[in-house]
């Protein structure tokens, strides 16, 4: 079947794409706009879209009240650390399952994935007690640990899919060419696996950065990442919409920038290598 | 040197016996083709020799030394894969030179050898391209270049031409043969195509169901097939087999006559009588598919043009000196 697209079709689909893109992006835009309003204007009905008194005072207040950089640093450490450790565990695991599979490999993979099917709240109490007894509450180590475990199944699954795509013949060709296992890894495997590793890493970073259930429940101040920092604006003294928006904007900014610069890798990662 | 000997080589995957005891003597510098139907174990046998699979039993000797416990890299063989298996992230230069780099050759020497190999294979203009920027034939040449540059004891080819189109396949077939003769390096070549086997080989190994059916020169196999399988597999179109009365008269359970050894006579009286079902006129050859009643369907080949058509009556006279006789179990009976 020959597929020809007329100018008209292109126009319609372009408009459609922009429309849905805008629809999806709108909450983020709204949040950014609200962060530049005063608290009063943020609540105003009907809301003003662009013509309001622009102010940056929310950002100043937010930074003054709670140390943004302290939480941002925690986010970096927790997201980065959990991603790094997850990769260190997942690479050999996915590797061995992709290159020397056994009868049970598929079952193991499914079992790993099944652990993601239970709602996390189901294990909140035991995990909380374990954290308490080991003195891990409100510690970065504890959060790195729990986020790493939480994302491990997805990381392994993704890497497994990528590694499976590497043709065995090529590894055997390297072996025939006299490469030792170590050199095979350095010169052949790693370069071929880098796109897959990069997109897995990015996706995991984003998942860990945005993770809110465990970070909210297991940290309060010392180890609190940006998610906790945002949440602190929706509590005791009532809802401060503009400040909450400012905090949220600050919290998502780094990951948004990272995502922007790595779109290509991300798309590949999210489609699990289905698109080549 | 590259003399390869197999002694009772066996391979099982779990409970499945794939190679059932192979004995073979491959002389240094010879071109040996493994041929057989798909799934008969050709690739497996080649991979056993390469060291990519471990034998379940028996010995593999390279220049007299048993290598069954030697890793592939140390066997001094190089392999051309069916899929080419080029390193996608390396240039042609990188691909061809990878083995030399692994062997610790200096950059200058590697470059010199890579360039010489590329020149032999007409790849010089493509040295800095990536495999994905090459055509199928060019990728094939790179794979061959990677094999020759290391000056191995033997080349192992696994159906290297099967992904090429027909015209290119014939051309590469000639090039590979010429290159092997020029280098004088032992070669083991796997194919399921008996024409490739007949045209390229010094000696052919016919495999069937994990067993070596016959080992000999192309003409040996054509003139003295050891059994029904080889007789039917080698030669195109296939040998005609006739059983019953006609075979018993000659003291055999089955007799076989090749299409080119049937003399075709219009309205003749002797031989096997029949009606032409299909006639193929190629100009250079004429193939007749003849329904010979109780004898069965027979194929006859005439060199040149023969103006006979479907429905015509013919008699087919087998050349008595070219009749192959087989016993009850399918083994050839010698006169
Ligand atoms: N790694 C393996 N595990 C199990 N069975 C295998 C394996 N490799 C090959 N086989 C089986 O061995 C038989 C011979 O395969 P192969 O040597 O590839 O045949 P050929 O190359 O002659 O077509 C086939 O039936 C195939 O299914
Ligand atoms: Mg094969």
From TrEMBL, chain A:
Transmembrane segments: 12-33, 76-96, 108-131, 143-163, 184-209, 240-261
GO CC annotations on file: plasma membrane
Domain of life, per lineage: Bacteria
Lipid biosynthesis is among the record's keywords: no
Boundaries of every ABC transmembrane type-1 domain copy: 72-262
Location of the protein in the cell: Cell membrane
Keywords associated with the record: Cell membrane, Membrane, Transmembrane, Transmembrane helix, Transport
InterPro entries referenced in this protein's UniProt entry, alphabetically: BP-dep_ABC_trans_perm (IPR050901), MetI-like (IPR000515), MetI-like_sf (IPR035906)
Similarity comment: Belongs to the binding-protein-dependent transport system permease family.
Name by which UniProt lists this protein: Sugar ABC transporter permease
Organism lineage string: Bacteria, Pseudomonadati, Pseudomonadota, Alphaproteobacteria, Hyphomicrobiales
Automatic annotation (TrEMBL), chain B:
CC per GO annotation: ATP-binding cassette (ABC) transporter complex, substrate-binding subunit-containing; maltose transport complex
GO molecular function terms attached to this record: ABC-type maltose transporter activity; ATP binding; ATP hydrolysis activity
Keywords: ATP-binding, Nucleotide-binding, Transport
Pfam family, one: TOBE_2
All residue ranges annotated as the ABC transporter domain in the record: 4-234
InterPro entries reported for this sequence: AAA+_ATPase, ABC_transporter-like_ATP-bd, ABC_transporter-like_CS, ABC_transpr_MalK-like, ABC_transpr_MalK/UgpC-like, Mo/tungstate-bd_C_term_dom, NA-bd_OB-fold, P-loop_NTPase
Subcellular locations according to the entry: Cell inner membrane
Membrane-topology annotation of the record: Peripheral membrane protein
Keyword flag ATP-binding: yes
Function as written in the Swiss-Prot or TrEMBL entry: Involved in beta-(1-->2)glucan export. Transmembrane domains (TMD) form a pore in the inner membrane and the ATP-binding domain (NBD) is responsible for energy generation.
PANTHER family per UniProt: MALTODEXTRIN IMPORT ATP-BINDING PROTEIN MSMX, MALTOSE_MALTODEXTRIN IMPORT ATP-BINDING PROTEIN MALK
Family to which the UniProt record says this protein belongs: Belongs to the ABC transporter superfamily.
NCBIfam families recorded: PRK11650.1
Name of the featured protein: Sugar ABC transporter ATP-binding protein
């Amino acid at each position: 079947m020959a597929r020809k697209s007329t100018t008209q079709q292109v126009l319609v689909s372009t408009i459609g794409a922009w429309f849905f893109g805008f629809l999806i992006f709108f909450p983020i835009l709204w949040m950014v706009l609200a962060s530049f309003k005063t608290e009063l204007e943020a609540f105003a009905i009907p809301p003003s879209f662009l013509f309001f008194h622009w102010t940056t005072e929310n950002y100043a207040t937010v930074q003054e009240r709670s140390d943004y950089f302290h939480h941002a640093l925690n986010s970096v450490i927790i997201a980065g650390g959990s991603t790094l450790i997850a990769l260190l565990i997942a690479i050999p695991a996915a590797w061995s399952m992709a290159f020397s599979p056994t009868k049970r490999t598929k079952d193991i993979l499914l079992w790993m994935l099944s652990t993601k099917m239970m709602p996390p709240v189901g294990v909140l109490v035991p995990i909380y007690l374990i954290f308490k007894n080991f003195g891990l509450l409100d510690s970065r180590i504890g959060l790195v640990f729990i986020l790493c475990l939480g994302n491990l199944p997805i990381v392994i699954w993704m890497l497994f899919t990528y590694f499976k795509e590497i043709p065995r013949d090529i590894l055997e060709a390297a072996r025939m060419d006299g490469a030792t296992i170590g050199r095979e890894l350095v010169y052949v495997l790693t370069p071929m696996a880098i796109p897959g590793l990069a997109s897995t890493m990015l996706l995991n970073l984003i998942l860990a950065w945005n993770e809110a259930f465990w970070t909210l429940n297991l940290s309060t101040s010392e180890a609190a990442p940006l998610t906790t920092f945002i949440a602190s604006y929706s509590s005791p003294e009532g809802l401060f919409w503009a400040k909450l928006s400012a905090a949220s904007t600050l919290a998502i900014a780094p990951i948004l920038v990272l995502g922007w610069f790595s779109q290509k890798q991300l798309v590949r990662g999210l489609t699990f290598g289905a698109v080549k | 040197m590259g003399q390869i000997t197999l002694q009772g080589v066996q391979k099982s995957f779990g409970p499945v016996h794939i190679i059932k005891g192979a004995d073979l003597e491959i002389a240094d510098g010879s071109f040996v083709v493994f041929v057989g139907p798909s799934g008969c174990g050709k690739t497996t046998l080649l991979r056993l020799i390469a060291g990519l699979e471990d034998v379940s039993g028996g010995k593999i000797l390279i220049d007299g030394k048993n290598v069954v416990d030697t890793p592939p890299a140390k066997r001094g063989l190089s392999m051309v894969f069916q899929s080419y298996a080029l390193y996608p992230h390396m240039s042609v230069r990188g691909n061809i030179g990878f083995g030399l780099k692994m062997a610790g050759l200096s950059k200058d020497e590697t470059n010199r050898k890579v360039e010489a190999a590329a020149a032999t294979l007409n790849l010089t203009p493509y040295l800095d391209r990536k495999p994905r920027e090459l055509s199928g034939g060019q990728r094939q040449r790179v794979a061959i270049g990677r094999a020759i540059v290391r000056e191995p004891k033997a080349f192992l080819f696994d159906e290297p031409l099967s992904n090429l189109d027909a015209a290119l396949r014939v051309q590469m077939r000639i090039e590979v043969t010429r290159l092997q003769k020029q280098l004088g390096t032992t070669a083991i070549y796997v194919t399921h195509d008996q024409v490739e086997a007949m045209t390229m080989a010094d000696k052919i190994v016919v495999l069937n169901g994990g067993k070596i059916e016959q080992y000999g020169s192309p003409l040996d196999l054509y003139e003295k097939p050891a059994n029904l399988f080889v007789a039917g597999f080698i030669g195109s179109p296939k040998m005609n087999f006739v059983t019953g009365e006609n075979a018993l008269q000659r003291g055999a359970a089955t007799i076989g006559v090749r299409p080119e050894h049937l003399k075709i006579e219009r309205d003749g009286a002797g031989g096997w009588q029949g009606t032409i079902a299909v006639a193929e006129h190629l100009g250079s050859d004429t193939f007749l598919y003849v329904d010979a009643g109780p004898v069965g369907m027979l194929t006859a080949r005439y060199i040149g043009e023969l103006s006979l058509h479907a429905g015509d009556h013919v008699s087919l006279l087998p050349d008595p000196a070219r009749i192959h006789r087989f016993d009850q179990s399918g083994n050839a009976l010698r006169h």
